[in-house]
Design brief:
Oligomer: single chain
Largest sheet: 2 strands, antiparallel
Strand order of the largest sheet: 1-2
Strand content: under 5%
Shape: globular
Number of helices: 16
Order of helices and strands: HHHHHEEHHHHHHHHHHH
Number of strands: 2
Distance between the termini: 51 Å
Radius of gyration: 20 Å
């Protein structure tokens, strides 16, 4: 069994120094780890073989986490959603929930909104990606092969996406929480905010791992400062559990203004309980409505009606 822990441990002066050296060195190292994980008996990226392959770590690697993040820094960074939440065709941010309002394309690792996907479909573009023009995968095996190619090049989003598929047991991959954590850990080390959120989620709730809320919060902090809305909302819930209503509302104000509906509803609930002001709720509501308005397009309206019919 290959030991990858040394690439993520601050105690290793050789491998860890290399992975810290530069972003390119980190991507190269991560790509090598991915390639090793995909080393199959017959050299084929068959989902069946992947499902039979054992996890590549007995213990999940640990992202190097700071002991603490200053609240002032945490509250001043991450007010804008990441670029990957933007549809590359229409240039608009994708409405939450992304998995419902968009489609992920493994060929180019781009996420297109339902409006642009519907427009392409009605134009007869069905077999090629509307974003990159490549042929779209039509089987689990071909989709996994594309993800593998991106992952082996050190694409953090692809590595994290494989983790998501492991967590659900999709694309022929076995459903295994530790496998998912291993993929997310590599992607998180490369700075992937979605993977950092997922790691925070599993550690906060003890989903497949020993519960460690302090560690979870540090993952969420890293993700939230990159504009990851789920992580920002999670930080608000963590502060609510600590009975710090003021700080909780500050977190939810940020994500609500990104168009994150859960945060808006939570602020309303807290307001009705007397732990937030009317002005705070009004500000959150206005920011939320502005965000929704900026995400509207004629094709998205058509897509919503089409998929709900």
């Amino acid at each position: 069994m290959t030991n990858f822990a040394k690439f993520f441990s601050s105690d290793d002066d050789s491998s860890c120094a290399k992975i810290k050296a530069s972003p390119s060195a980190t991507k190269e190292t991560a790509g090598a780890l991915v390639a090793t994980h995909f080393h199959l008996r017959n050299g084929s990226p068959s989902p069946t073989n992947v499902a039979q392959f054992p996890p590549f770590l007995e213990e999940p690697p640990c992202l190097r986490l700071d002991d603490s993040t200053p609240t002032s820094l945490l509250m001043t960074k991450g007010h804008a959603r990441p670029e990957r939440d933007t549809c590359p065709k229409c240039g608009l941010k994708i409405s939450f929930d992304l998995s419902i309002n968009s489609r992920h394309h493994a060929c180019c690792m781009k996420r297109l909104c339902n409006g642009c996907n519907l427009e392409a479909c009605l134009q007869g573009i069905n077999d090629t990606c509307p974003s990159c023009g490549k042929s779209m995968p039509d089987t689990d095996a071909s989709c996994l092969a594309m993800l593998r190619e991106h992952a082996e090049s050190g694409d953090a989003a692809a590595i994290g996406y494989i983790g998501v598929k492991c967590s659900f047991g999709a694309l022929g991959l076995r459903k295994n929480a530790l496998d998912a954590i291993e993929w997310w850990s590599i992607a998180a080390e490369l700075g992937d905010a979605d993977s950092q959120y997922e790691l925070g989620r599993v550690y906060y709730y003890g989903d497949g791992v020993k519960q460690d809320k302090a560690r979870a919060i540090r993952y969420w902090q890293k993700a939230a400062m990159q504009g990851q809305s789920d992580a920002r909302h999670g930080l608000g819930l963590a502060e609510l559990e600590r009975c710090d209503h003021d700080l909780a509302v500050q977190h939810w104000m940020i994500s609500a203004k990104m168009g994150y509906e859960k945060s808006l509803h939570t602020i309303k609930y807290i307001f009705l309980k007397g732990h937030a002001t009317k002005a705070q709720y009004a500000e959150a509501l206005l920011g939320y409505q502005d965000a929704l308005e900026e995400m509207k397009s004629p094709w998205r309206v058509k897509a919503k009606a089409f998929y709900e019919s």
